[in-house]
Specification:
CATH class: Alpha Beta
Largest sheet: 6 strands, mixed
Order of helices and strands: EHEEHEHEHEHHEEEHH
Number of domains: 1
Structural class: alpha/beta
Distance between the termini: 28 Å
Strand content: 15-25%
Number of strands: 9
Number of helices: 8
CATH superfamily: Ribokinase
């Protein structure tokens, strides 16, 4: 029996908490065979982003094609795509070979947990107009949803719900608007899809170690979608979304007290992607 295969197209994080590294850890932890195409390079750690550079668009396209030509991908996660040229070649390939990507989860990464910008302004239009309609699910946080809509960030749950529905109006098949930027002891994510609006609410975990949570959630949704056999057109199951959120919450709780940095009490550490796995 062969494992399900997932592909991540995203940026690299040398500190291992976000991006390609977080995606591959998540795929492995959840029992999915992970493949990857690097769309951008960053110089970052738990303290912030020092520099970022896109990968040559032709090389991004060739990486993706090499995977699709050889391996039956069940689900794809799209993350940091750097600039309009990179986002454009990804959109081109999606339009040409949509079935080869399997279920697609688009995490429109624009700003790191540290607040550093990761997506150039001219790429926003490509993400909104070309990639958003091709995805089965998009997973913006509150600031990212505001950028995509050209509006101010949602200040409360009713506004988050309205913005999730507005993003569906732009052509998204389904939207999971993450509520981590809201204040309060509870965290609510808003799912807007063909069945209506569903709220996922959990208690907030008090920790600074939230680096890469968005990457981890979107790759976990892709992994569970692959495992459940979710298909293009039928959409991503709510069960896959719920299981992915559960995995992320466990990973945050397990890594909440970690002090990996040489400067404890500063920056944002990673979550424990291998929560529940045996360690030496």
């Amino acid at each position: 029996m062969n494992p399900k295969i997932a592909l991540t197209i995203a940026g690299s994080d040398p500190s291992g908490g976000a991006g390609i590294q977080a995606d591959l850890k998540t795929f492995t932890a959840l029992g999915v065979y992970g493949t990857a195409a690097i769309a951008g390079l960053t110089v970052q750690n738990t303290q912030g982003v020092r520099a970022a550079a896109p990968v040559d668009p032709a090389l991004v396209r060739d990486q993706i094609a090499a995977v699709l030509d050889d391996l039956p991908v069940a689900a794809t996660k799209l993350g940091m795509l750097s600039n309009a040229a990179v986002a454009g070649v990804v959109a081109d390939l999606l339009e040409e070979r949509r079935a080869d990507f399997g279920v697609v989860v688009l995490d429109p990464v624009m700003v790191a947990t540290s607040g550093d910008r990761l997506l150039q302004d001219e790429a926003v239009e490509t993400v909104r107009d070309r990639l958003l309609p091709l995805a089965d699910l998009i997973t913006p946080n509150i600031p990212e949803a505001a950028v995509l809509l050209g509006s101010t960030p949602a200040g409360h749950l009713d506004e988050s719900t309205a913005q999730a529905l507005a993003l569906r109006g732009l052509g998204a098949r389904a939207v999971l608007l993450k509520g981590g930027h809201q204040s309060g002891e509870e965290l609510t994510d808003v799912l807007a899809d063909a069945e209506g609006v569903t709220l996922f609410t959990d208690g907030r975990i008090d920790t600074r170690n939230t680096h890469g949570t968005g990457c981890t959630l979107s790759s976990a949704i892709a992994a569970f979608s692959a495992l459940h056999g979710d298909t293009i057109g039928s959409g991503i199951s709510r069960e896959a979304i719920g299981q992915a959120r559960g995995y992320l919450l466990r990973a945050i709780a397990s890594g909440a007290a970690w002090t990996l940095s040489r400067s404890p009490g500063t920056g944002h550490g990673p979550v424990d992607h291998l929560v529940g796995k045996a360690r030496p």
